[in-house]
Amino acid sequence: MLQSGENRVTFGTRLGIIFVTVGSSVGLGNIWRFPHLLGSNGGAAFLLIYLLCALLLGLPVMIAEFYIGRHSKRNAAGSFKVIAPGTKWSLIGYNGILAAFLILGFYFVISGWTLEYVFQAVTGSLGEKSAAAFAVEFSNFSSGIFRPVLWTLLFIAINHYIIITGVKNGIERSSKFLMPMLFIILIALCIRSLTLPGAMEGIDFLFKPDFSKLNSSVLLSAMGQAFFSLSVGMGCMITYSSYFSDRTNLQRTALEVTLIDTVVAVLAGVVIFPAAFNFGIQPTAGVELVFITLPNVFGKLPLGSLWSCVFFLLLAVAALTSTISLHEVATAYLHEEHHITRKRAALYVSLSVTVLAVLSSLSFGIMKNFTVFGLTFFELLDYVTAKLMLPLGGMLICIFVGWRIDKYILKAELTNKGTVPFYFFSFYRFLLKYVVPVAIGFIFLNELGFMNFHFDL
Length: 457
Description:
about 450 residues
């Protein structure tokens, strides 16, 4: 039944809060997209711009979502009904819930692929082969019917079990296990990668600043990565923060999540680039890097199957911590707003998203010629959420908190009624009202092709 703010379940420990929130932010994009952007857009120069964007743009949005969630102690839609009753502001929450649901529809497919490659590594199928052979095998697998769908369904089942177990016993407990595992695997892979011959060439590529590459495109890439990597605009942070206790330091938690998320992405680059450069492979973004190039790299290493298994286990863990948070957004909404049990709400979400995920998986094979606006079903879900719903949600959240919420009420919540200092509150509110919405607007319009924002340094 619907829980009131007074008896709402909360995460048990501060460490649990950090793990579940970081887990929501850390995902597959940290492992392949961020390292590529960092390496191909000026290295350390891009990293500096990304950190500024994350701190000055992404962090304010996260804090705003933390305010909405904890102040209301409700789900992503119900929170706006509590804070602004009788208004249309709850549409922001519905946008986030729908975005999270649609993202699950294609994210589960890639997550299932990670399990396939863990299985292949364990069984020794990822032996030393040519890059062309890996490309053919990946194409045959992803375009198939039975195997990709089977792994997708297994990943959905794992998520479903964790969600129905509850907030404390399911989400928090699993995060306390999964996040340390993720860091242990990352560090082990970093050490192995750094011991390869010529590893410093990859490190130079990753961290050596090249300011000549900085331009408007790099700036927009850094801004976009900051917003999307931190999981803002999709209801995850609102939903999770609704389980925060009144003692949780919202400012510090948001800052820690932002920094840890960035550290994970950088460590992923330390894993990828030395290994790729050691074998003379130029890293590329996306699916090709993870499922074709890197298996080829690991296959040439001593104990290659072991390192392949460890790497794809890392991908699976990163994917799982993200999909749990996305599932919880929709589950919490159904549970609270429609007054049904948590298990039934989770079942409805799992069954519904299964339909989307199966269609997304089949769009690589028998449904690849079924397109909407030239996009396959998988691509359509990705485009609608990443290009439209997430930036729109982030922008509206800034406008809502910056302009609709009384500054004294906002400050009281963010300072735990004055017990936690907020030295830069006025600057934070200025960012929220003016700077962040405009920045998101630039990303929004540029990505849609409505403007061509360009400059060179």
